[in-house]
Specification:
By secondary structure, the protein is an alpha/beta fold. Helices cover 45% and strands 14% of the residues.
């Protein structure tokens, strides 16, 4: 896998994350992992826990809003914080907060900016900690999840999301396919899609040429044009650019929908712990009963 801290999108946070990783790896005590009991908090803690388990390092997981104590700590801040990561040593204490960064260079050389979420930063830190870790590698497709949940995709094009998606494809950690090519799709976030129509197109997909596929998918997605949501950028991702991890029968957007149900059916802390446990053991969201 490509080192995320070497990617352009991580340039402004790389040195902080590398310093934090060095301090955490040499720390001899338990590291507290702290986040709010939200889906973003869970997605940020999971890769960090994966690295700790891969390394055999002692840690504790806690879902709460405020930090306490003076020991070693990684504290994931909420989406409203955008000051970027901050690290102090002895003992190692890292604050992860989102930051707006350069995502891609436009064709005319202009800078296109987007959010570098705590989820993406956590994956980068986890990789520095345990670059060959089995759990860290298995969780790699979730690198995009913070950007998928960020409001940037609801208002405009997110260059960081696109850059990270392309990185996953280039290194072989994920595939990008159209909706009919996904075996199991959660349709609750695409209410304009008729399940029978999707099934019919999926069955014929292998028989269609490029023009036929484009026409069929455009027909399937057309009702969304009359709706205020989703945005054009998100609609394109839902229809044409589904992200599928190795050996997945589902896609990332569907996995996130499935995970979100945990918070609808359980107390927040229970949902958060259940989700992280599932990611650590299977690399996937839990299947609904």
């Amino acid at each position: 896998m490509r080192q995320l801290v070497e990617a352009e999108q991580f340039a402004s946070v790389a040195s902080t994350l590398v310093d934090a990783a060095a301090g955490i790896r040499t720390h001899r005590g338990t590291v507290m992992l702290l986040a709010a009991p939200s889906i973003i908090g869970s997605l940020s803690l999971a890769p960090l826990e994966a690295a700790m388990l891969d390394l055999g390092m002692p840690y504790r997981r806690r879902f709460r809003l405020q930090a306490s104590g003076e020991g070693a700590l990684i504290h994931v801040m909420g989406p409203g914080q955008d000051s970027g990561p901050d690290y102090t040593g002895d003992p190692p204490r890292l604050i992860l907060a989102g930051q707006v960064v350069e995502g891609l260079q436009g064709s005319s050389g202009d800078s296109r900016r987007g959010p570098l979420t705590t989820v993406a930063q956590a994956h980068a830190l986890a990789q520095v900690l345990a670059p060959s870790g089995t759990r860290v590698r298995r969780m790699r497709p979730w690198l995009l999840s913070g950007n998928w949940l960020h409001s940037a995709l609801d208002t405009t094009y997110d260059p960081v999301f696109t850059a990270l998606r392309d990185l996953l494809v280039e290194e072989g950690s994920a595939r990008v396919v159209s909706m009919p090519e996904v075996t199991t799709v959660e349709l609750s976030n695409t209410p304009w899609i008729e399940e029978l129509a999707l099934d019919a197109i999926s069955e014929k997909w292998s028989e269609l040429d490029m023009e036929g596929r484009a026409r069929a998918l455009s027909h399937l997605m057309r009702p969304a044009l009359a709706r205020s949501t989703p945005s054009t950028a998100r609609m394109e991702e839902l229809g044409w650019h589904r992200v599928v991890g190795p050996d997945w029968d589902s896609d990332l957007a569907s996995e996130i929908v499935r995970a979100a149900w945990l918070w609808k059916e359980n107390p927040a802390a229970t949902a958060a712990h259940t989700f992280v446990d599932s990611l650590l053991t299977t690399g996937r969201a839990p299947v609904r009963e």
